[in-house]
Amino acid sequence: MSYRKSTSGWRWTRALVAGAMGITLATTVLSATAGAASTPGVTSSSVNIGATVPLTGPAAPGYSEIAPAMGALFSWVNAHGGVNGRKINYTYLDDGYNPANTATQTRKLVLQDNIFADVGSLGTPTQAAVQGFLNSQKVPQLFIESGCNCWSNSKFPGSSGWQPPYTVEGKILGAYIKSSFAGKKVGYLFQADEFGQDFVKGLDQELPAASVVSRQNYDVATLAGPLSNQMAALKAAGAQVVAMATIPAATALAMLPAAVIGYSPQYVVSNVGADAPTVGPLLSAFAQKGGATAAQVAAVGGLLNGVITDAYFSPESNVSNPWVQVEKKLLAKYAPSLYAKSGLDGNTQYGIALAYTFVQALQAAGKNLTRAGLLAAIAKSGKSFVTPGFVPLSYSSSVHYGFQGAEVIKLSSTAPPAVTPSGSWIGGTAVSPVEVTNVGSGPVKKYTGKISAPPKSLSKSA
Amino acid sequence: MSLFFNYTLNGISNGMIYSALALALVLIFRATKIINFAQGAAGMMTTFIASSLLAHGVSYWWAFVLVLAIGFAFGAMTERILIRPLQGKSELNPVIVTIGLLVVLEGVAGAIYGNASRGFPAAYSQSGLTFGHSRIAFSHFDVFILVAVLVLMIAILILFRATTLGLRMRASAFAGEISRLLGVRVGILLTLGWGLAGIAGSLTGLLVAPTSSFGPYYMDLVLVYAFTGAVIGGLESPVGALIGGLVTGLCISYVGGYLGSGLEPMGALVLLMVALMARPEGLFSRPAARRV
């Protein structure tokens, strides 16, 4: 009897547990459905955004500073009440610049961390790997840190770039070569992927085909030693100007073997590959040999001296620029450990400016925040966002590129040295006015508009 | 023609470096019949130590000698601590351990020194030698690479061929049990083989660093090419390592120069396949007697 009783008791317990589980499940499903009706990642007091960036691996040097610098600007925003009462929660995950990892980490951000938008993720191959996924999930893929032409594509309405497309850079530098080095033989050295190819596309639009005597490339996956053969071929072809779409390490690995064979063409290097704080130390070790004197080491500055490149916002060595001053204060206050380590450099400046662009997009999207509303707000008012860029952003409903202009600068080792803790020892001077163009066949022309000053709210409270 | 000449000089300079690391692989393979995948990473680690020494004001040549000694100690310790306990177990085990060591060393170097590429000084000027009025693609430092690798190679040949220590080393590698019965202290000689390989690995690290983007991963591709050279040379012969490394260096330089730099690793692979199809034992090893 007691046996039976206990059995029926057990049965009841089971029924109760099952019932409770059923109710829990039902509520979960219901609440999930209710959640889907509102916007994922958005509450009345917060908005979750995420990114995948290289914190480790070969692309990490320099680039790993960008996301923490974005974090510094968001901390400033949050300390002042957030945007429309919402604090920004920014999660960035490491993908090691490996597209396979990017896919996994992006899925985690979307499905697990429930992000509202993917903001400021880095890399061409990495972001191309998740462009389809993010767009199919209707997650905006905003301000990708790459100049690939592929971000402005009507098939992927949620994607947009931020920095000048590589073709725009190629056109502006190509136009400069055509006017300033007229009649000289030009050779190319480019990375054999979208970065190099898009850049070359721009150069080819501006330069007469007959003046291009040699086209050399390298594979970034096997970039280990000096690019001796490429430089020997450029020398043999008689190239007097060498236009390079190279990452910083490749710039150094090209200039070194050229110097070995006594080849010193006029170098014209893309913005990415002319980052002096990265390239400089690589080059200075070159001249250094067992027991080299300080003077000998200093002589290497010569290799970067006179290099032509382009800039689309004021470099950190321009200490009198109001944006540079604000950015420095902001970074020192809201990311002190990053500031102590790398100081204000091109990468941290980039992160701050990009984050500020996103904050303005949130403001423009208004109180009732939706993904479609955010994209519409960028298309409508993106052109008027305030940035340190020399030209305004060019967002519209059909154009998803950011800046489409830059000025040509000449690096010089005589400019004021050492303004960052990491030691930027090479400055530069502008050799062209700020110029604008587009990815298509539009001409390169002088920009006549204004350059924005930092907003009062930022310069006062940072 | 001048292009071919330049590609050849680049090939020789790179080939000598592959030879040095191939020699390290061969020394270890002779002694313990395993491939040490951490050989390049060990050279990377010791070069970082050299970099720290230089930063603290130690002169280049002192650092050079010290680091070769450290390389020797590191190689010997690896054998004693990590490889010896696996003796008699599956041959795969020590190989897996060396791959693990590779990952750990690259991780540790990244954690201590950061992942950024940096520069490393060369022993001699890296401007090309001048003959008459023309400058060739072979620098004073390339001459040093050539001489340093040849000196190491000759020293090891003399050790093996002309000293009783070398004879014992060869004997203990060739027939460990019999040598032990004859009173040779096989254990210490195996350790010595790993130590010598450590010297060759450290030397490679020091020679590669000035002309590459020196960082935790800069030896990875060098190891792949050195391995190609070592296999072509037969994995057992120091002379084979020298020739194999040179052939690999030249082949990669021509492939990169004439066909495109993206095809360099493919070129190494094709070279490896052709060489193994023509002579499966490698160019410089005696064919093994067939066991009946």
List keywords for this structure.
heterodimer; A: 462 residues; alpha/beta; Rossmann fold; 5-stranded parallel beta sheet; 5-stranded antiparallel beta sheet; 17 helices; 14 strands; globular; B: 292 residues; mainly alpha; two-stranded antiparallel sheet; 11 helices
Q: Would you write up a description of this structure?
A:
The complex is a heterodimer of chains A (462) and B (292). Chain A has 462 residues and is α/β, with parallel strands linked by helices. Chain A folds into two domains: 46-164 and 318-403, Response regulator (Rossmann fold); 167-311 and 407-438, Rossmann fold (3-Layer(aba) Sandwich). Helix content of chain A is 45%, strand content 15%. In chain A, helix 4 runs parallel beside helix 5 (124-136) and helix 8 (228-236) crosses helix 9 (248-260). The radius of gyration of chain A is 26 Å and the shape is globular. Chain B has 292 residues and is mainly α. Chain B has helices at 2-32, 39-55, 60-83, 92-113, 140-162, 164-174, 176-181, 186-208, 220-232, 238-259, 264-278; strands at residues 128-131, 134-139. In chain B, strand 1 and strand 2 form a beta hairpin. The chains are: A alpha/beta (462), B mainly alpha (292).
Tell me the radius of gyration of chain B.
Answer: 19 Å
Oligomeric status of the shown chains? heterodimer
CATH architectural arrangement of the largest domain in chain A: 3-Layer(aba) Sandwich
Helix proportion range of chain B: over 70%
Question: What's the CATH H-level superfamily name of the largest domain in chain A?
Answer: Response regulator
- Terminal Cα separation of chain B, in Å? 54 Å
Q: What's the arrangement of strands in the largest beta sheet of chain A? A: 2-1-3-4-5
CATH class category label of the largest domain in chain A: Alpha Beta
Please estimate the helix content of chain A.
Answer: 40-55%
> Approximately what portion of the residues of chain B adopt beta-strand conformation?
under 5%
Structural class of chain A: alpha/beta
Most extensive chain contact?
A: A-B, 45 and 51 residues
